[in-house]
Amino acid sequence: MAFGQWREVPARRGGTRQVGQWAIHVQAAWRFARKSAVFVGITDMHYYADDGSNFDWGKDGESRFDRLAAQLNQEFKAEAEIVTDVKCDDVGGFTLFLKSGLTFDVFPCVAFNSPEFEFWRFFEPATENDHYVVETITGRTSVCPLKSSSTYR
Predict the structure, then answer these.
(1) Model confidence at 1: pLDDT above 80
(2) Confidence of residue 134 (pLDDT cuts 50, 70, 90)
(3) What is the distance between the alpha carbons of residues 151 and 108, in angstroms, rounded to a whole number?
(4) 117: left (phi over 0), alpha (psi -120 to 50) or beta
(5) Is residue 142 predicted with pLDDT exceeding 80?
(6) pLDDT of residue 131
(7) Rg (CA), the chain
(8) Which of 79, 73, 71, 86 is nearest to 100 (CA)?
(9) How far apart are CA 46 and CA 116, in angstroms?
């Protein structure tokens, strides 16, 4: 996910690409919810959009995630989201509250003493600045770098 103003940066294979001022990369469980119902979540990648059967990664087809994420991206293109609030928990998870009523929840679901596993990272793309990484090896975090009033793209 990208946040803030878009900027143009050099692409690795030549040319340029657009990145947000900030980004979050998530490897933990996540979901977008609206009005007390999940709109799309990580597990939607495992089911076909049309009949809900198990998705076969070796065959062509549209997963529920593909379809629902496309709908969500159309909403974001029509009107940029604003992060109105952020709540962090004490086990590496967080919730972003968006102006439209959507929430984005990230909830690590592996023990902190498990082998090294990265839950998520917050960073400035295409810069040499440090990344804020939440992972099993670092243990619990008490400082959450996420702030409200950011524009989500």
Answers:
(1) yes
(2) confident
(3) 24
(4) beta
(5) no
(6) 87
(7) 17
(8) 79
(9) 25
Q: Which residues of 47-79 are buried (b: 16+ CB within 10 A; e: fewer)?
A: ebbeeeeebeeeeeeebbbeebbeebeeeeeee
pLDDT tier for residue 75 given thresholds of 50, 70 and 90: very high
- Give me the sheet containing 2-10, strands edge to edge: 37-41, 29-34, 103-107, 94-98, 81-88, 150-152, 2-10, 16-26, 118-123, 132-135
Q: Two tokens at 17?
A: 């690409």
Q: Is 59 helix (H, G, I), strand (E, B) or coil?
A: coil
How does DSSP classify residue 130? P
| CB distance 104 to 150 below 8 Å | no
CB 18 within 8 A of CB 7: yes
Q: Which residue has the tokens 């090896």?
A: 137
- 126-153 residues labelled b (16+ CB within 10 A) or e (exposed): eeeeeeeebbbeeeebeebebeeebbbb
